[in-house]
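Reading a protein record of the kind used here takes little practice once its layout is understood. Each number in the token line that follows is a code from a learned vocabulary of backbone shapes. One such record is shown here in full, so that the layout can be seen directly:
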Amino acid sequence: MADVKKRKFKRQDPVDLVMHIVTYIVYSFFAFVCVYPFYYIFINTISSNDLSARGKITFWPKELHFTNYVNVSHIPSLMGAFRISLGRTVIGTILTVVASAFLGYMFTRETMWMRKFWYRLVVATMYFNAGIIPFFITMKNIGLYNNFLVYILPTVVAPFYIVLCKTFVESVPKELTDAAELDGAGTLRTFISVIVPVIKPILATVAIFSAVGQWNSFQDNLLLVSDPNLATLQFTLYQYINQASSLKALVNSTGNAASLAASLAHAATATSIRMTVTIVVVAPILLVYPIFQRYFVKGIMIGAVKG
């Protein structure tokens, strides 16, 4: 096998070889541009806080330590914000995936009452909206102000995801659903037993989009939630970045005398607080993405192109 690959490589036209090399260089550069900011923030969180504050950490960590993560764990309300973000991400993603898949399936069924009208109505919301103030008034009038459900309900019906699922379902052979209906399966049974197992790639794609959107959501917390017990990680990060100097004093004053003496050389700075909290907020969603990555390309391609 190795000899065959070598022969194919030798047979390549010089122009093709140059193009391949240039392509690898260009994409490697873009990969570096995308990855380096996260790497830079991470190495600054595990390096000397004094050197980090002075901008001395660029490519390699210096005076390695993990005290910053211990210090950040002492920040009040951080774990509560983590639970809120985790809860809205898990619940919101599940409901959005289920709603998108079911509605996408229903919009392909000719027996659905006024199917085209409802589908066009849903799609129209992708292009038109009332704006922030009417949205705020509506959410407040229906009792979602300072309510955890304000993170969940407005995102359950997502037109873009419904369109993706509908297009994917249309690529499923109609004979599968016809056979299930001939065996006596109803709409719900056909959806659960026939459609869902076939459209797993697009479900994983929608799950990625929805989870990232839920985890990174910030505006709903800013506009519709004033209760600190319902604050999300992203909103907490925003507050901590703006209040990093005061938080520096807070984390440096927490813990017992022994732990403080042990971490004196790594006393928190405003820069270390900002970067460490950023890593804590971003890391979970970065770890989830590789799990669904193998479904992503297939799902988005089939769901976006009919035929």
About this structure: Residues 255-265, 303-307 have pLDDT under 50 and may be disordered.
